[in-house]
Design brief:
By secondary structure, this protein is an alpha/beta fold. Helices cover about 50% and strands about 10% of the residues. It is built from 14 helices and 6 strands. It has a 6-stranded parallel beta sheet, sandwiched between helices. α2 links the parallel β2 and β3. About 35% of the residues are buried.
Length: about 300
């Protein structure tokens, strides 16, 4: 492994939704001639920029921002695909003499970048499309039972409602004849030894975080997010896109379809956002070995560690 002094520094800022990660990353980038690189699995897609809380134009004008809205919503961005794109952007930033600042709440993306990932087989996109049609036709519960009959280990790990991961488990099993659990147990590969990661966890107190989640969704409504959702293609029988699971999308879609009142949709969306934020806090506390833990955004603490 290269000497620590010779490795190139990358700042990684992780934390729950509405914690202030994007603002903190921008502050660091402005102070240290940096480039902000997205590590959020929803913000990588175009189509629902407001709902996925992508940085506004003022932020992107203040410092370079990469990997925001770069993929069409019909594609699947795996952690490995994101890591490869992120490594390209890190190299690009460093080639420009800029500090790479990774910012996002998708912990698995971040861990794949910093710690590597177990080797995984490439699966035909046609098989993925086929399985997406099957799960839409038979329902998640029946698909989960079918997976359990063939791969009880993975089925026991997955909630029946997690469509994307159910499809992933089944496609790997069908393509390789081995459980995804067996692949995941292999030693990780792809750890970038040439990089020095300064890992920052931004974890506000729960009451503060929940208040921010509620307020941000109301601000989104004021900013026209309902119109954005209305213009976005709704799920089809055989084609549910990742953005259809974006925080707030199911509730606002239900309102537009006449299944919820506006006020109930807002309350439900705020609740789902708080629940997701809680899960993120748990992940970053237990799964990310942070060098710096912050309750409030503090760019100076990060800059001092550079």
């Amino acid at each position: 492994m290269p000497d620590a002094q010779k490795r190139q520094t990358v700042v990684v800022i992780g934390g729950p939704t509405a914690s202030g990660k994007s603002g903190l990353a921008l502050a660091v980038a402005q102070a240290a001639n940096g480039t902000v690189i997205n590590a959020d699995s929803m913000q990588v897609y175009n189509g629902l920029a407001r709902l996925s809380a992508q940085p506004p134009a003022a932020d992107t004008a203040a410092a370079p921002h990469r990997l925001y809205g770069v993929l069409p919503p019909s594609e699947i961005c795996s952690a490995v695909r994101w890591r490869d794109m992120a490594l390209d952007e890190i190299a690009r930033a460093q080639g420009e003499g800029r500090l790479p600042v990774i910012a996002g709440g998708t912990g698995f993306y971040i861990r794949t970048l910093t710690d590597g990932i177990s080797p995984m087989p490439e699966v035909s996109p046609h098989l993925r499309v086929q399985l997406a049609a099957e799960i839409a036709a038979e329902g998640n519960e029946n698909f989960h039972k079918r997976l359990a009959a063939q791969d009880p280990v993975m089925a026991a790990r997955l909630h029946p409602g997690n469509t994307q991961r159910l499809i992933r488990a089944m496609e790997v099993l069908m393509h390789t004849g081995k459980s995804l659990a067996e692949w995941q147990a292999l030693p990780p590969t792809g750890t970038p030894a040439h990089l020095r990661f300064i890992k920052v966890a931004l974890l506000p107190p729960r009451n503060v975080l929940y208040t921010r989640c509620n307020a941000r969704f109301l601000q989104m409504m004021d900013d026209g997010v309902l119109e954005e959702v209305e213009s976005f293609p709704p799920p089809q029988k055989d084609a549910a896109w990742p953005l259809h699971k974006a925080l707030g999308y199911p509730e606002l879609r239900a309102y537009l379809d006449g299944k919820l009142s506006r006020s109930d949709a807002i309350i439900a969306a705020q609740q789902s956002t708080r629940h997701y934020a809680k899960r993120q806090v748990t992940w970053f506390r237990n799964q990310m070995a942070a060098d710096i833990v912050l309750e409030t955004p503090d760019a100076a603490a990060i800059l001092a560690a550079l």
